[in-house]
From TrEMBL:
<dbReference type="InterPro" id="IPR016040">
    <property type="entry name" value="NAD(P)-bd_dom"/>
</dbReference>
<dbReference type="InterPro" id="IPR036291">
    <property type="entry name" value="NAD(P)-bd_dom_sf"/>
</dbReference>
<dbReference type="Pfam" id="PF13460">
    <property type="entry name" value="NAD_binding_10"/>
</dbReference>
<dbReference type="InterPro" id="IPR051207">
    <property type="entry name" value="ComplexI_NDUFA9_subunit"/>
</dbReference>
<feature type="domain" description="NAD(P)-binding">
    <location>
        <begin position="8"/>
        <end position="132"/>
    </location>
</feature>
<protein>
    <submittedName>
        <fullName>NAD(P)H-binding protein</fullName>
    </submittedName>
</protein>
Length: 252
């Protein structure tokens, strides 16, 4: 079996990918800013990054920072991977990074370009938003007595375990370039997702749809972040996710 490095290996996606690769018998190194022995900030790199990549055949790049730095992190990682002779760099990205002019998405797209032009063997999988991200947004919005939602927006949340399964499988295969996007099973209005959340948590809130403006809002409104039916490959719905969380809380 091969030696693999999972960046962001303690995060929501990375820890699942690392677990699946280990279960398949691979030697897995986990790189994270605060997780020894490979505690590395990819934005600064250095000798610690070179040591983490040394002897690695495949890198699975799950690390991401919405506050900024993905492009710089990708550049550092690509440089270290070249020096170490890495054969395969598998990367997770987001559906719509080339269609939605959101600052974080632009950084993700720039990271994709660096990987594509790296000279390394590479695979890039784009996925829609994970269920836990949608939940976090709704939890924050529901703190107010009135739940305000951007008018006319939809989402296509996907189960993170399904993305982890797909990314781990791709990492064990030869480099494949851009592979088909992975979207959740349903395109849902934000209002329907909010109502599902309120029902599951027994909360009552008035829902108000608020029209917004700007290029980014227009791109989301037009569905630039959605895969459409062709790539709605996920199976777990938002309600499935909420019910599973409720059951887990009941056992705690």
């Amino acid at each position: 079996m091969t030696t693999m490095l999972v960046t962001g290996g303690t995060g929501t996606l990375g820890r699942l990918v690392a677990a699946r690769l280990r279960a398949d018998g691979h030697e897995v190194r986990v790189l994270s800013r605060h997780a020894p022995p490979y505690a590395v900030d990819l934005r600064t790199g250095g000798a610690a990054l070179d040591a983490a990549v040394e002897g690695v055949e495949t890198v699975v790049h799950c690390a991401s920072t919405p506050s900024g730095g993905d492009e710089k992190a990708a550049a550092r990682l690509v440089g270290a991977a070249r020096r170490a002779g890495v054969r395969h760099l598998a990367h997770i990205s987001i559906v719509g990074v080339d269609r939605v002019p959101y600052r974080y998405y632009r950084s993700k797209l720039a990271a994709e370009r660096l990987i594509e032009e790296s000279g390394l063997g590479w695979t890039i999988l784009r996925a829609t938003q994970f269920h836990d991200l949608v939940l976090g947004v709704l939890q924050a919005l529901a703190k107010a007595p009135v739940l305000l939602l951007p008018a006319g927006l939809s989402d296509q949340p996907v189960e993170v375990t399904e993305v982890a399964d797909r990314l781990a499988a791709l990492a064990t295969e030869p480099p494949a370039g851009r592979v088909p996007d992975l979207g959740g099973p349903e395109v849902r209005t934000l209002e329907s997702l909010a109502r599902a959340y309120l029902t599951a948590t027994d909360r009552r809130r008035a829902l108000v749809n608020v029209p917004l403006w700007g290029r980014t809002y227009r791109a989301f409104h037009e569905g630039g972040h959605l895969t459409g039916d062709e790539h709605a490959l996920g199976r777990g719905t938002f309600e499935d996710y909420l019910h599973r969380r409720a059951r887990a809380a009941g056992r705690a």
